[in-house]
Amino acid sequence: MKRGRASAGQAGIGCKIHRSVDGIGASRSRGGHSSHNGGVNEQAELRPSCRAFIAAAFDVLREEHVIPTPIFHPYVAVGRDYFGDTVRAVAEYHTLETQLNDAYPERFAGPVPRPHAEFATTYIFSFLEACVARCARDGNFDADSPAVDESIDELLAVLGRLSDEIVCCRHVSHLTTTSGAEVQIG
Known about the structure:
The structure is a single chain. The chain is mainly α. A hairpin with a 2-residue loop joins strand 2 (about 20) and strand 3 (about 25). About 40% of the residues lie in helices and about 10% in strands. The protein has helices at about 40-65, 85-90, 90-105, 105-110, 120-140, 145-160; strands spanning about 1-5, 20, 25, 165-170. The strands form two sheets. A two-stranded antiparallel ribbon has the order 1-4. A two-stranded antiparallel sheet has the order 2-3.
């Protein structure tokens, strides 16, 4: 079982952000980033854009019968359950991407071949997928829902952190033979 917590993100946020029950987390260290933006003013300005993007994306996902999700499969993934370019086509996507790039230049600015390159797109799709999972949990796919508020808070918290933390747990099982005798393998 793996559990991730990050300041950079995972299911993509600054690294490959992964979806978890809680939404957005990190799967690798960003390394080298030491500054951050995203103060209170930037966060207040980003919230309406985040919500507008989710409203527009939810409309597209409804049209494509992606949401509402089945109770037993509340998680969606770009490239598997929906086409990313369909979501990228909504105007609110580009507005949010531009605002994230402007609010967090230490993460998203600079030449592409930079070490540990991060892209707003990764965070945006992870944010969308976290919203879908939380809304599925609550049975309410409304952009004004508390589940979306929770996901916006998480996105801004992840983008505002300076470091990553990854926690792994390994489950080991002790197998035995039916006779109880020791078996040498290898």
